[in-house]
Design a protein that fits this description.
Order of helices and strands: HHH
Strand content: under 5%
Largest sheet: none
Shape: flat
Distance between the termini: 11 Å
Number of helices: 3
Number of strands: 0
Length: about 55
């Protein structure tokens, strides 16, 4: 369940956010702040594994 949620979240982000900001995927990753980007990706992993801990 968490993997499906993560996949849907990433599809929404990469399609909608990149379209709204008007940047490519490469530019998106190049402009990420190293610290905030790392925290964001850790939180995505927490989001994905949370159903395991709740269930």
């Amino acid at each position: 369940m968490g993997g499906i949620g993560l996949a849907l979240l990433l599809v929404a982000e990469f399609s909608f956010v990149l379209w709204v900001r008007g940047v490519s995927l490469r530019e998106y990753f190049a402009t990420r702040d190293p610290v905030l980007g790392t925290v964001y990706y850790i939180m995505l992993l927490v989001f994905a594994v949370m159903p395991v801990f709740v269930g």
